[in-house]
Specification:
Shape: elongated
Number of strands: 12
Structural class: alpha/beta
CATH class of the largest domain: Alpha Beta
Membrane topology: Single-pass type II membrane protein
CATH topology of the largest domain: Spore Coat Polysaccharide Biosynthesis Protein SpsA, Chain A
Organism: Oryza glumipatula
Protein name: Hexosyltransferase
CATH superfamily of the largest domain: Spore Coat Polysaccharide Biosynthesis Protein SpsA, Chain A
Strand content: 5-15%
EC number: 2.4.1.-
Pfam families: GAUT_1, Glyco_transf_8
Length: 573
């Protein structure tokens, strides 16, 4: 059947556009409300994420901030553009005007300036502690107030010429006061170094009293003088010249306590007439592990007189006595060189050891301010290669060469001595007395003492004389045998001290004084601990164990000198 044709101008029904239906109005309102709510929820959620987001650290800014915090305060003060430098300059000028205001009676201005100076100091201290640079906001108020006060001071006729004259006079006065204080400090320090502690002197008095009241001690002393051990060259001989009882005891005690065979040690102690009784009593009533201790008085050496010794002859001169023992001293010279110990005969006896010990071949000399920490008998086996003395050199730095001790502008010195020769130390020395007698070293000492009668070759002391006497006759020893400086140097390496055979408290800060360096004092004190058994008129505890410090500062000698003490002291190792 043929298809039905539609009327012309009209589409067929299957090709006609479907009719569009319009949505109801309420649906459009509902959609709009949902869109608004969604937009509000989106905005709210976005704000919450921004609020709770962890802070992002900018590494570059952190580095800059850290670098900014670490401000060098010294560089800030030196910088001409920093506020710290401006504050410092203003503060310095303000301090000057404070002095001027006080001198002219303007106390109100002085108080105002001082107040601003304190504010300035507070701000600078805060910068130094925090490490942050001072900002303009912090510095400007203080600088402004200081500038106004300085202008006010200048307006009060404190002109620059008056300021310069006043400050110059103040500087001169302060320099004079500083110079006087330095001299006074040196005098007081030297006085303290030369003094004997009260209780140490008391010990000497009690021992002397015991010596005088007990004739047995004098008898035993004479017996010891006749001992064959004193001249036996198979034994180990040590020489100590001192007037300090406890210091000598520490030397002997520390030597025998470190010796493998203390019975083979012989000590030759020489002291003066005043301390002879105390020194003899001390070593008679103590047993130092079976060693032999001989105590002699310097007055026994009749050959040591003005005819034989230039030093004795010089000491008899009034000028020398006035220099070392007089009240008026020339302040142009250093105070330490007026120390009478430098010209003490005991101190110079080291140059007469062959005369004092004529039968011996080798001797170790020890000062009374040393502590022995190793066995010293090995020193006697050291080969000196024909030299007279073995000593530790001290020229690790150029400071301790010969030109430091001697006057090389004098022709006698410059023509015979090399100024760059290495110096060495007294205090622990091994002497070959056979080589000494062969070189006639004592005569060399006399020659140099005579040449130095006017103190033009060296100022004073035994070391310069020893450097000249034993010039070319010294054998260097290993540094560990003798470590110096415990009487003045606070920075000695602990490992060096521990490895040392002998430590030396050379200097003014002796270990038995309150001036002693606390860091090294224990070394000396541990060798001076003793056990004291004593009987007294008043009943006291027997068998009391006291240390050296307790002995010096405790109750042992609080009784009057009239009471008689009988001592029986044994060393405790």
């Amino acid at each position: 059947m043929p298809p039905v044709r539609s009327a012309p101008g009209r589409r067929a029904p299957e090709f006609r556009r479907s009719s569009r239906r319009r949505l109801p109005e309420w649906i459009w309102w509902l959609v709009g409300i949902f869109l608004v709510l969604g937009l509000m929820l989106f905005v709210l959620h976005h704000n919450q994420r921004e609020h709770f987001r962890p802070p992002v650290v900018d590494k570059g800014s952190e580095f800059e901030e850290t670098h900014h915090e670490k401000v060098n305060f010294t560089e800030e003060l030196l910088s001409s553009t920093s506020f710290a430098r401006q504050l410092t300059d203003q503060m310095t000028l303000a301090k000057a005007y404070v002095v001027l205001a006080k001198e002219h009676g303007n106390l109100q201005l002085a108080w105002e300036l001082s107040s601003q100076i304190r504010n300035c100091q507070r701000l600078l201290s805060e910068e130094a502690v925090s490490g942050k640079a001072i900002t303009k906001e912090e510095a400007h108020p203080i600088i402004t107030r200081l500038a106004r006060l300085i202008y006010k001071a200048q307006d009060s006729h404190y002109d620059i010429s008056t300021t310069i004259v006043t400050l110059k006079s103040l500087v001169n006065a302060l320099e004079e006061r500083a110079k006087a204080a330095v001299v006074q400090t040196a005098e007081f320090g030297q006085l303290a170094a030369e003094s004997v502690p009260k209780n140490l002197h008391c010990l000497t008095v009690k021992l002397t009293e015991e010596w005088l009241q007990n004739p047995k001690h004098r008898g035993r002393s004479e017996e010891h003088r006749n001992s064959t051990r004193l001249v036996d060259n198979n034994l180990y001989h040590f020489a100590i010249f001192s007037d300090n009882v406890l210091a000598t005891s520490v030397v002997v005690n520390s030597t025998v306590s470190n010796a493998n065979h203390p019975q083979q040690l012989v000590f030759h102690v020489v002291t003066d007439r005043v301390h002879f009784g105390a020194m003899s009593t001390w070593f008679l009533i103590n047993d130092f592990k079976g060693c032999t201790v001989e105590v002699r008085c310097i007055d026994e050496f009749t050959w040591l007189n003005a005819a034989a010794s230039p030093l004795v002859r010089q000491l008899s001169e009034m000028e020398t006595q006035g220099f070392y023992y007089g009240d008026s001293k020339n302040l142009e010279r250093e105070i330490k060189f007026h120390n009478p110990k430098f010209v003490s005969l005991l101190n110079h006896l080291r140059f007469y050891i062959p005369q004092i010990l004529p039968n011996l071949e080798k001797v170790v000399f020890l000062d009374d301010d040393v502590v022995v920490q190793k066995d010293l008998t090995q020193l006697f086996s050291i080969e000196l290669h024909g030299n007279v003395i073995g000593a530790v050199e001290t020229c690790l730095e150029s400071f301790h060469r010969y030109h430091k001790y001697l006057n090389f502008s004098h022709p006698i010195i410059s023509s015979k001595i090399d100024p760059h020769t290495c110096g060495w130390a007294f205090g622990m020395n091994i002497f070959d007395l056979i080589a000494w007698r062969k070189a006639n070293a004592t005569a060399l000492y006399h020659y140099w003492q005579e040449q130095n009668a006017d103190l033009l070759l060296w100022r004073t002391g035994t070391l310069p004389a020893g450097l000249l006497t034993f010039y070319g006759l010294m054998e260097p020893l290993d540094r560990r045998w003798h470590v110096l400086g415990l009487g003045y140097d606070v920075d000695i390496d602990d490992r060096l001290i521990e490895s040392a055979a002998v430590v030396h408290y050379n200097g003014n800060m002796k270990p038995w004084l309150k001036l002693a360096i606390r860091r090294y004092k224990y070394i000396w004190e541990r060798k001076s601990a003793i056990t004291v058994h004593h009987e007294c008129v008043m009943p006291l505890k027997l068998g009391a164990s006291v240390s050296y410090m307790e002995l010096l500062f405790g109750t042992l000698f609080k009784k009057s000198f009239g009471e008689i003490f009988t001592y029986n002291l044994d060393w405790k190792f």
